[in-house]
TrEMBL record:
Transmembrane segments: none annotated. Residues 16-288 form the NADP-dependent oxidoreductase domain. Residues 295-327 are annotated as: Disordered. Residues 316-327 have a biased composition (Basic residues). InterPro entries: AKR2_Oxidoreductase, NAD(P)_OxRdtase_dom_sf, NADP_OxRdtase_dom. It comes from Nosocomiicoccus massiliensis. Residues 298-315 have a biased composition (Basic and acidic residues). This is Aldo/keto reductase.
Length: 327
């Protein structure tokens, strides 16, 4: 498996495991998932202090610690959401240096780690004291509490500030072949971690269920019927939707952060990952030419928005309908 190396020399496998939906209460199933991940050369595990209000870090940290004598791995976690673990509720957004310092000490305990491999700010706005946050990240790095830092956000104005004024190693944001809004954030300045690679199940064999439950009101300006047209177009290329989704991200040279909840799900996703390697680049290029280029329109200077998406939507949908109707 391909691995990426951050500017701070952290190794991140191209296929990484998102832990938010892992079966924390089924120790046997969870252990099997982690074992399979290691045996498949996955070395990066993504969590956050807010997931299950600290429980995710604690359980995952314990399992990974047990495997640590046999495998090398990196953990990425996130900070900035102050919460009450006992009440199991979020208190407020808090990117202050004082809170980050406290939260990191707690995450280290839960993760059973002396140092956190990768720490990400779990959001962020331009109204934050971003300089204070950056100084604290740099301080934690100098003291050896963390090895690398980055941000998880879709706000362009925040991303731009951190890119220009900090030494972030990674950026995490949603990215897939339909929701391609984060393509403009791809950069050689950091490693990009793509979450939501299968678009909440829309880019899977269960796409019809996802359409009826999660996308019944459409998404990103697409109606439910328009999303279905895109899916049917992709299916005509003869590959599993999951494999197409992974190949798109592989071609973008990003990390695929894939969450699972069962061993069988991870096995299936890894098979699709292997299939993706056999898909020709031209197939992905052709599909992408028929999908609109989208951009986040909020949290940015309106002048920087590319308006091509507003001009070519009708043409793209016309192409889709023409192709689907062909015998």
């Amino acid at each position: 498996m391909k691995h990426f190396v951050t500017k701070d020399k952290q190794s991140i496998s191209q296929f990484a495991l998102g832990t938010m939906n892992l079966p924390l209460d089924d120790r046997e199933e969870l252990s099997e998932i982690i074992r399979l991940a290691f045996e498949s050369c996955i070395n990066y595990f993504d969590t956050a202090d807010l997931y299950q209000y600290g429980k995710n870090e604690a359980v995952i940290g314990s399992i990974l610690f047990d495997y640590g004598q046999f495998f090398e791995y990196n953990i990425g976690t996130k900070v900035g959401n102050e919460f009450d673990a006992a009440l199991r509720e979020k208190i407020k957004w808090n990117p202050s240096a004082e809170y980050i310092k406290h939260a990191v000490s707690q995450s280290k305990l839960r993760l059973s780690r002396d140092v956190i491999d990768l720490l990400m700010l779990h959001g962020g706005t331009v109204h934050d004291n971003m300089d204070e946050t950056i100084r604290e990240f740099e301080s934690l790095k100098r003291k050896g509490d963390i090895k690398s830092y980055g941000i998880s956000t879709t706000r362009k104005n925040v991303i731009d500030y951190y890119t220009e004024n900090s030494d972030i190693s990674v950026l995490m944001a949603p990215l897939n072949i339909i929701d391609n809004r984060s393509e403009e954030y791809l950069s050689d300045d950091y490693v990009f971690l793509a979450r939501g690679p299968l678009m909440q199940g829309l880019l899977t064999e269960n796409y019809d269920v996802a359409l009826k439950t999660k996308f019944k009101h459409g998404y990103m300006g697409y109606s439910q019927d328009e999303l279905r047209e895109i899916i049917l177009m992709i299916k005509e290329y003869g590959y599993p939707l999951e494999a197409i989704a992974y190949k798109y991200l592989m071609n973008k040279n990003v990390v695929i952060v894939q969450g699972v909840s069962t061993v069988s799900q991870l096995k299936k996703n890894l098979r699709h990952y292997e299939t993706a390697k056999t898909i020709r680049d031209e197939v992905i290029e052709d599909i992408c030419s028929k999908v609109e280029k989208k951009h986040y329109k909020e949290h940015r200077d309106p002048k920087t928005v590319t308006h091509q998406e507003d001009n070519d939507k009708k043409n793209v949908l016309k192409k889709l309908r023409k192709k689907i109707s062909q015998p």
